[in-house]
């Protein structure tokens, strides 16, 4: 029910916000390469766009600078990172709504095996959410006594061995992505084993 009624609206809002963000970053890219007169109307608008997007583009620019790649391409990298984050976030929201809908169906039918499978599936969903939060929060400083500290402690038993096996690519920790993919495969196995 939630998947059919609420999720399409959330998806529409989030993807529209992504498209607006992408358009602003593409404007920044265009202004970076055209280098308009800073005292003209277009130049002042370009400066406002640059100032508005600087906090989002700066980490990507810093990453590109370490490899001596033109930092004016940073908006493209920021768009790609935002696309991946938006895709994963929307999958998490969709899965959460789907699990809530399934819980209603399973409890109405009195299916104990399906209920146990859904509990395992939901716990894996929470783990995916925590790893996703950890991945995003790795770019920020946080204290150990916060929710992010709790997320880090919960995901450490999985993420620390994965980080030892899979090296980072620049400032990006791809081990989190690989762990998310492996947990998704485990969820598919749980769904097929418990008939979800």
How would you explain this protein's 3D organization?
The chain is an all-alpha fold. The protein folds into 2 domains: about 1-85, no CATH class; about 110-195, no CATH class. Helix content is about 80%, strand content about 0%. It contains 7 helices and no strands. The chain has helices spanning about 1-5, 5-35, 40-65, 75-110, 110-135, 145-165, 175-195.
* Average pLDDT figure: 85
Order of helices and strands: HHHHHHH
Number of helices: 7
Main sheet: strands, sense, barrel? none
* Strand proportion: under 5%
How many extended strands? 0
Spans of 5+ residues with little confidence (pLDDT < 50)? none
Query: Could you tell me the radius of gyration in angstroms?
Result: 21 Å
Q: Can you tell me the overall shape?
A: globular
Question: How many distinct domains?
Answer: 2
Helix content: over 70%
Structural class: mainly alpha
Distance between the termini: 16 Å
């Amino acid at each position: 029910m939630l998947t059919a009624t609420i999720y399409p609206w959330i998806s529409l809002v989030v993807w529209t916000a992504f498209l607006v963000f992408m358009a602003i970053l593409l404007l920044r890219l265009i202004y970076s390469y055209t280098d308009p007169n800073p005292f003209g109307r277009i130049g002042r608008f370009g400066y406002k766009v640059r100032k508005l997007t600087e906090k989002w583009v700066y980490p990507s620019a810093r990453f590109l600078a370490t490899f001596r790649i033109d930092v004016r391409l940073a908006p493209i990298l920021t768009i790609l990172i935002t696309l991946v984050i938006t895709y994963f976030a929307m999958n998490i929201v969709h899965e959460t709504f789907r699990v809530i809908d399934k819980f209603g169906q399973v409890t109405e039918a009195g299916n104990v095996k399906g209920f146990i499978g859904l509990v395992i599936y939901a716990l894996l969903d929470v783990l995916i959410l925590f790893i996703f939060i950890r991945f995003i929060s790795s770019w920020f400083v946080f204290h150990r006594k916060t929710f992010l500290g709790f997320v880090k402690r919960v995901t450490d038993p999985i993420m620390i061995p994965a980080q030892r096996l899979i090296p980072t690519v620049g400032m990006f920790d791809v081990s989190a992505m690989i762990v998310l993919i492996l947990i998704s495969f485990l969820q598919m196995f749980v769904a097929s084993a418990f008939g979800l």
